[in-house]
Amino acid sequence: MLNYDILIVGAGPAGSSAASEAAKYGAKVLLIEKKKIIGEPVQCAEFIPKLILSEVEISRDSIVQEIKGMRTHLPNGECVESYSPGYMLNRSIFDKELAMKAADSGVEVRINTLCSSKKKEKIFINKNGREIDVTAKVIIGADGPKSTVGKWINSVNRDFIIGMQYSVPLVSSLDFTEVYFDQDFFGGYGWLFPKGKSANVGVGIKYNSITKTDKSLSSILKKFVKVLEEDGKVKNSPFLITSGLIPVGGPLNTVKDNIMLVGDAAGQTHPITGGGIAQAVICGKIAGKIAACAIQKEDIEMLIDYEKEWKDIFGKELERAHTKRCFLESNWDKLDSIVKKCWTVFREYYYE
Predict the structure, then answer these.
(1) pLDDT tens, 62-104?
(2) 187 in Cβ contact with 171 (< 8 Å)
(3) Which UniProt keywords apply (predicted)?
(4) CA separation for the pair 268, 280 (Å, rounded)
(5) Radius of gyration of the chain (CA)
(6) 297 phi and psi, to 5 degrees?
(7) Across-strand partners of 123?
(8) What are the boundaries of each domain within the chain?
(9) Which pTM was predicted?
(10) Which CATH code of 3.30.420.10, 3.40.220.10, 3.50.50.60, 3.40.50.300 fits the domain covering 2-351?
């Protein structure tokens, strides 16, 4: 049996950030990741706002290009430019670097390793069919939208956007991200996010709406790429296809007993934009620090401070975004008239 202070499940931005911070405060940490290669396949549009630079050092290797702002395309044909500075990442490199930082801090990192079950104080992890017993004083679930750890405390995401994305060549370089609202993209939107000579082009649609229409997500995305090709923005020759779920139901309960949730597993993704990298890194760092301090002081009840602290930072905005999402979905047939009330670049989003 292997004994640790903290077991962290999932080596994405949330898990690796939590691991580094916990190790910095002296905890013995095991970080496990089910994928064979950390950060792959990429299931993300890969944009981060500049504000994250105050929380995490990002290497030049993981930045593909700088972004000046966003163009929002409304259903009536209007295009609105906004100042939204940030960066397009190579998420594969970004995730690997965060995990390497954790390893350099003394964290034990195991890839291709599943967290299979929990029985009382024992957690069972599985690598290549070999089951290993682990004990940990604190468990941090950073294992994504369908979190195994979240199920242990009955705190699970139930509301999702399903996204599908192509990598396609650009006709010419861009320094703005572009977002498109359309009746076909129920509960979500289409995006064109430039990455040097190529772009991430995708659509996100409410998960349960796909079963209620005769249109497949793939056909909707192909139609969208065709429109962008006709507009002279991209070449219709996809060379990479990815898909994934984005939790949009708002924050979950993130602490129970000795278990904490971070990132997508915690519902910390923005319910309107679907963005979650900044929250994952910041909340991960908070979780790691508080978990380590709770162990040092032998006071597991301190873990609730994590929920208080991250909600002080993000709670109000995530709750507002969830309210806006409910309004958006229930009034989708009036998309032309309500989109400015429900998208974050518009003044109406904050004051109506």
Answers:
(1) 999 999 999 999 999 999 999 999 999 999 999 999 999 999 9
(2) no
(3) Flavoprotein, Lipid biosynthesis, Lipid metabolism, Oxidoreductase, Phospholipid biosynthesis, Phospholipid metabolism
(4) 7
(5) 20
(6) -90, 0
(7) 118, 134
(8) 2-351
(9) 0.95
(10) 3.50.50.60
